[in-house]
Design brief:
Length: about 400
């Protein structure tokens, strides 16, 4: 069994560190993991409903799906360093405008629209593109580390935001959080991406570069793209959707409030572990086989949670499996896109699949809420999620062996 190729990490550690901070302080991490902290304050301050407050997430999903693929062409044309270093400050400034909220729904949604548009250059599409170009033997592990940024941010930001609210008020808290992409992530991207290795020259248009893989048109007409879409649509619904509802799911199983809190806290830890473990596994084994195993474990988790009553140890196993599966999703997607579609139009193809995934992840929680309101239980929809994951686990195997491509030179 091969050890870690330290030469790749020795040459690319700056890229990994910059990408880690970029995903942690970029989009959708900044708005997605902080809106829940400020939502109760907006309810009390302005009398808004939670539906109105969380409606901003719908704008994010729509922007990523509709505008994201077109915006991704800027990454292919101007390079990851330039696009991300500009988008991150714009994202921070857009987020800061939420501090000026005065009760106007129109003003509130304009802030979210600005966040959605200006943050599109600071999504995982940008940072995974750089990592996929710079790493080969340990690409999966590098992707896992970079994409752990969002989970680490989620772990840190909630207590930090609460402390800022208690000491300076909610407007100060928003300004401080918004300053993070400007003062931390953007400078790190400028520094970390400044010494891209020669194999990553395709990210800088001023240099003579090499690109391999399909054009966007070829990718969208290939069976690989549609197989990946078929896999990631059910994956987004079945894995991402239960997470915002996890506390209520656990309560419905007859667990005590203290047990619910303990179990819910395991999700984030398991997700970070899943990102790293998934990255190591795809480096060592055929990635579709790894995906099949992981998705099957996720199906088992959904089946356990669909029961009427579950013991604490069984619930713990289910939560760990669910968190592990949710942690693998983005780096598996990035790895498979690079392997099967290539890097020639990576930003466009990955952005499209990422947009599809995000829509499912943002719409899914509402479907869970509707199912519970209608039936008083999550059993039916969790069983459906298990079936979707089993179907995805079987479908991903049809990708077949990794394609072999010739590198094509471009001026």
């Amino acid at each position: 069994m091969k050890g870690i190729d330290f030469n790749e990490f020795r040459n690319g550690w700056r890229l990994v560190l910059a990408g880690l901070l970029g995903t942690a302080l970029g989009m959708p991490a900044i708005p997605f993991y902080t809106i829940g902290v400020f939502a109760p304050i907006f309810v009390e301050e302005f009398g808004w409903s939670f539906a109105i407050i969380f409606g901003g997430l719908s704008l994010l999903a729509g922007a990523i799906l509709i505008v994201g693929p077109f915006f991704a062409t800027l990454i292919d044309r101007f390079g990851a360093r330039r696009v991300a270093s500009i988008s991150l400050p714009c994202l921070g400034l857009s987020y800061m405008t939420l501090a000026a909220s005065n009760g106007s729904i129109e003003q509130y949604y304009l802030s979210w629209l600005a966040i959605a548009i200006f943050g599109l250059g600071a999504t995982p599409v940008v940072f995974t593109r750089v990592i996929n170009n710079a790493f080969e033997e340990r690409r999966g592990l590098a992707l896992g580390i970079v994409l752990s940024g969002a989970g680490l941010f989620a772990f840190v930001v909630k207590p930090l935001a609460q402390l800022l609210i208690e000491t300076g008020g909610w407007r100060v808290a928003i300004l401080v959080v918004g300053a993070m992409p400007i003062l931390i992530a953007s400078p790190m991207v400028l520094w970390g991406f400044a010494r891209l290795p020669s194999r990553n020259a395709s990210t800088e248009p001023a240099m003579s570069k090499a690109s391999e893989g399909m054009t966007a048109r070829e990718a969208f007409h290939s069976r690989y793209f549609w197989l990946l879409a078929i896999v990631f649509v059910p994956m987004s619904l079945a894995i991402a959707a239960p997470l915002p509802n996890i506390e209520n799911i656990l309560r419905s199983l007859g667990l005590s409030p203290s047990e619910v809190v303990q179990l819910a806290s395991l999700v984030g830890i398991a997700a970070v572990a899943g990102r790293l473990l998934g990255g190591i596994l795809v480096d060592r084994f055929w990635a579709p086989a790894v995906g099949t195993v992981i998705l099957t474990l996720g199906a088992a988790s959904c089946l356990i949670l669909s029961l009427d009553h579950v013991s604490f140890p069984m619930a713990c196993i289910a939560i760990l499996l669910l968190g592990l599966t949710s942690g693998v999703e983005f780096d598996l997607m990035a790895y498979l896109v690079a392997r099967y579609l290539g890097m020639r139009s990576y930003a466009t193809t990955y952005a499209t699949l990422y947009g599809i995934f995000v829509v499912g992840a943002f719409v899914g929680p509402s479907l869970f809420g509707y199912a519970f309101d209608s039936t008083g239980t999550y059993s039916g929809i969790l069983e459906a999620c298990a079936l979707l994951l089993v179907a995805g686990a079987a479908t991903i195997l049809f990708l077949g062996p990794y394609p072999t491509r010739k590198t094509q030179a471009f001026a």
